[in-house]
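Quick one: mitochondrial processing peptidase from Manihot esculenta, structure tokens please.
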Amino acid sequence: MALKHLLALARRSHRPSPSALSAVRHSSTAVASSSPSTPPAPPPPNAMIYDRLAESVKSKLQQLENPDPRFLKYGSPHPTLTTHTHILSAPETRVTTLSNGLRVATESTLASKTATVGVWIDAGSRFETEDTNGTAHFLEHMIFKGTERRSARDLEEEIENMGGHLNAYTSREQTTYYAKVMDKDVNKALDILADILQNSKFDENRIRRERDVILREMEEVEGQTEEVIFDHLHATAFQYTPLGRTILGPAQNVRSITRDHLQSYIQTHYTAPRMVIVASGAVKHEEVVEQVKKLFTKLSADPTTASQLVGKEPAFFTGSEVRIIDDDVPLAQFAVAFEGASWTDPDSIALMVMQAMLGSWNKNAGGGKHMGSELAQRVGINEIAESMMAFNTNYKDTGLFGVYAVAKPDCLDDLAWAIMYETTKLSYRVSEADVTRARNQLKSSLILHIDGTSPVAEDIGRQLLTYGRRIPFAELFARIDAVDASTIKRVANRFIHDKDIAIAAMGPIQGLPDYNWFRRRTYLNRY
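--- reply ---
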């Protein structure tokens, strides 16, 4: 309407005189009665009005960040395509590598009032020997027990006075120390992290007291059956290799670890090239880099990488099982796993989609027949489990892909059949609708996972240690969207079809089928 109004104004501003109009009419009649010829030129327009009209239309078009799709559908003469990658893009992740090989990565969110600062180290229980297994976890406990500048009490009070949180965790391949603080305390947090990693005292009395703490922790872990199942699964799947060892280590090692073991582990594995300093939230990259240069000056520059150490002692998957019968507990638990993909394997994305296709289910959460996962539907409708979940674990050179389940003893046979049927079916019959659903669920979970400065920092640190860079979400989502039904079948044939499996089971498991029964159902068996 606005366009028509402006055109009407333009016509009225240059309306011809009656005599001129009559001449034009006579000319038109003559042209119509005679042979066809070039029509007369229209009267010259008012240039200023048309310029204003063009500018008005141009400004209106510039305001349309997302044009009406009808303009594209019906062939607008100048269709405008809008990129949607900004929806997926996170703030820029900036990485600076110092002269000693130490990497500093930041992601600034200036609207945030808090920040997470941490150190991600390419070292874990996998890099221990059989005699020193448990040292990495022991070190995680001792690192907060005092330095040359701060006592344990000073550390606690300094963090408490800032209103911050200082924490750590150890896995099979990585160790992390991080602090979440207010924006004004970022430099203090970096100073504390540098101090505990370079100047810890490891007092013998503290070591003796901490042994008892870790031994009590081991007793508590024994009550967490899911964790115990996965420890047994690693032990049988990667038996006689470092990846098969537990994170806490055996009790006899915990009792024998000394100050020398801790210092040796730090000197060997806490080296600059194997560490990433990460800061996310209310931080500025240049300021963080300058602080790191000043504070982290005592790190070894040993160029040996974690991948080189893994190459010397690689993990080998062994088809095997471990079963622990315990009739004193009411529920049976078991995990069935195939060898999976490493972090950098091109098929790791497809395995993530396959994990979403198999899904998870919990009796307390309800659902079942209306869930997208056919495995969850079978389990829920037939009430053959208390809970189940698919898992996909990646390491530097291998992985584990499978299903973990908890069930009553009389349901084990039916549950095992459902798990193997739906898992093996991925090699033969896959619908595009199921793949699309799984892709959407995977993308949603990845986005929801990084809600907050600490998850963002964890994502940056893990990706820099595993991939060597932070993968943008636009790129990651494009890789996920490239997975279709044919990709799923190809990858399932590579990892699942007629492949060895590892099984770990605990509880009243007499009704769980034997290993050969599971192995026969890794390929199409017409029964």
